[in-house]
Input
Amino acid sequence: MGINGASGTNPSDPFSTTTAVAVIDADGLITYWSQGAQDLLGYSAIEVVRHPARALLRGHDPIAAMSRLCRGDHAGDAVVTVRHRAGHAVRLAVRVCPLLTADGRRDWLILGAGTPAGTAPADRAPADYARPGATRTAAAAVDSEATRPTPAGARAGHRASPVVTRYARRRMVSGQPQVTVAHAPFRRGKPGRAGRECSRPRSFFPLHDGAGGTLGICYAARKATVPDPTRERLVLLNAAAEHIGTTLDLGRTVQELAEVAVPQLADFVAIDLLDVATTGKGPPSRSPDGPVTLRRAAHLSIRPDLPKVIAEVGEPIQYPSGSLQNRCLATGEPSREALGPGTPWLPDDPVRWTGINRFGVHTHLVLPLRARGVTMGVVTLLRWENPDPFTEDDQLLIEDLVARAAVCVDNARRYAREHQAALTLQTSLLPPNLPRHNAVEVAHRYLPADAESGVGGDWYDVIPLSGARVALVVGDVIGHGLHAAASMGRLRAAVQTLADLDQSPDELLAHVNDLVMRLSDEAEAAAEGPAAAGATCVYAIYDPIARTMVVARAGHPSPAVAHLTEPVEFPDIPAGPPLGLGGLPFESAEIPLEEGSVVALYTDGLIQAAEQDVDIGIERLCFALAHPDRPLEEICDIMVRALLADRPRDDVAFLVARTCVLSPDRVASWDVPDDPSAVRVVRDDVSDRLSQWGLDELAFTTELIVSELVTNAIRHARGPIGLRLIHESTLICEVSDGGHTSPHLRRARSTDEGGRGLFLVAQLAQHWGTRYTGSGKTIWTEQPLPGDI
Output
C-alpha cells in the first residue's frame, strides 16, 4: 500500500508544505512525505516513498529506534535524529499518532518541526523543538472509519473538541484541504502585555493511498503568541461593555470602570464626580469653569497604599487651578502630560507631588466623564510600573472606553434621580406619623426594596373610628415603580374614605375591589398601562370595649396574634381574592383579644424575604413575637433582624399593635322605652353620670344632644332603642335604633315646624355621624373634654 507516492503533498495547504509530515506503514515503509519534510531533510517524495523509514534514522541501532518510535496504541512524543540528504544530522521533536487503515492494519503519522543539525543545543527539552520561533505545533489523525479524531500526544481515550471533529468529518467527505484560524479568548495580564494574544492556524488535509482513496485526515495546528493592537482594542472594549453597567447603582458602575482600566491600561485610575452626578440634580446649563469641588467616587491601583496618599472614596477633592483636571472640566477635552519637576501646577499641590514623586509616576491622562451633553466628572489615569508613557493610540482607546462608560454612569445617575423621585412620592403617600389612640399602642416599619427592584406599593394605616374603635390596615399593590406608588396612594385614600362611613371590613374590601377594577379598566382604555394591576389588603377593626377584632383579607397573609399566655396564633381568616380580580365575596371573622395582646399585620415581603421558604418565615415571625410584653419598637427591631437579614428584594411593611381595653366604669348604657316621656328620665341619668365622671361642664350640651337624638329615634325609627356614653379621649354619645333610614342635615325654613334638631346637634358636637349594623343604625357624637376645649 502506498500513499500518493507521486507527490505526497497538498500544495494548496500551508501546513503540508511548512510542517514535516510523514506516514509509516506497519512494515516500516514510508507511504507519505510532505513538502515540509522535503524542505527540512532534503529528500523528495519520490526518493523516500516506499522505502524503509529506518534508513533515515541515525544511531547505533536504527531498527530498535524505529521499533521504539512506532509502538503503543495512542499518540506520543519522541525526539529522533534523522539523516539529512546533505549528510548532516537533524534532531527532531516529533509527534507520533497511530492511524488505522481500512484493512485493519496500523500505520503511523509522524509530524515534526526541528532545526538543522548543529544549531540546537543538545540539552534542549523536546517541547522546545516543537516550538520554532514563537509557535507551537500539534497534530491529530483520524482513519476513514473513525468518527472523531484523536489528538497526537493525548492520553488514551482523549478526544478532540467538537469543532475539530466537525471539520475533520467535512474533509473526510470532500477530500479537500481546509485552513482555519482561531483566536484565543482575551485574558488579562501584566501591564504592558495586554496586547499579546494566541492565534491558532489549523489545517485539515486528507491522506490518500496509491489508488487515490482517502485513507485518513491529518489535523495540524500551530499556536502563536503575537501582538495584535487592533484586535486588542476590540477585545478590551468588548470586555468593558460586558463588565461596565451591570447594575444601575452609581457607585458600582464607576468601580466597574476602574476595574477595566487597571492594570490593562494604567497603574492607577481615579474617578471624581461633580454634584450633578452624586446628588441627582438636573444637569447644568453649561460645562463647569473655574474652581470646582468634586467627590471621589472610585479609584483602583496596583499599589493599595497609593489611594491613601491621594484621596479616599467619598471625600471632597479639589485640583489646583492649572491642573489637567480643571482644564478638562472647563474645556471638555482630554489631556495628557508627563509628570516631573517641571510640571507647572505640581508645586501648588505638595500632597500630590509627594505621592507622585514617591511612586515614580511619570505620566498621566485625564479625560472628561461626559454623556448626553452633561459633564459629570473627570477620569485620571497614572502610569509608573508600566514604563511606556500614554501614547496617542492609548488616548484614543481610553477615550472610547470612557465614553461608553459615561453612558452607563449617566444611566445610573438618571435612574438614581428617578428612583429618588418615586421613593419621595411613595413616602409622601404614607402616613408621616400614626395617630395616637387609646385603643391600641402601635409601632411600624417600612423598608423599601433595593434600587434594582424599584419602589413598590406597600402601605399601612391606623384609622380612628367611632365608638372608641380603631381600624388597622396593611396593603400591597402588585408591581413596582411610579404606577404602583400612585396606585397605593389612591387605594389608601379610598380605604380612609370608606372607613369614615363605618363599613364592616368585608363591605369595605368589596368597595375597594370595585375601585381597583375600575381604575384598571380606565387605564387600559387610555392605553397607558394598568394603573393598578391588582393589590392585596388586610383590614381589621378593634373594639376596646367589646375586646374583639373583626378582620377581613383580600389575598393577603393572615395577621399574627401574640397572646400573653398562649403561643403565637395565626387566626383562620377567610382568604378572599386579591383586589382587582372580582368574582368571590369577602368574609369577616371575629377574634376575641385580651388586654396586652400583640397583633402583627404585614406584607408578604416580610415572610418571603431573601427567597426563603414561607414556613421558615412564619417560624421566624413567631420567634420575634414570642414575648409580647416587650416594647413594641424592640419587637419591630427583632422582626427586622430575624426575617430581613439580607436586603429585601420586595418592599416590606408591617404594623404591630398592642391592644388596650376601656375600663367598664368609663362606659354607661341604658335601654330607652319607646315612649316620649322616657326622654326626661334619660336626660337625668346622663346628668348624674357626667357628674360622677367630673364632666359637669358638658352636662347642658350633652342633655340637649341626648334629648334630640332619643326623641328622633322614638318618633322616626323603631325599637329597640339604646343609649351609650363613653368617656374616652372625648365624650362619645351613641343612640341606637332598629331603623335603617339615614338622617340628613338640612337647614330648616322659617315656616317649618321641625328639622332643626340635627342641625343643633351638629353645632354642639365636634364630630357626628352614622354607622349601620346588622340590627339597625347608630347615630354618634363626639365632644371634646373640658381640658381640651
Notes: The chain has 21 helices and 31 strands. The CA atoms of residues 95 and 128 lie 13 Å apart. The mean pLDDT is 78. The two ends are 121 Å apart (CA to CA).
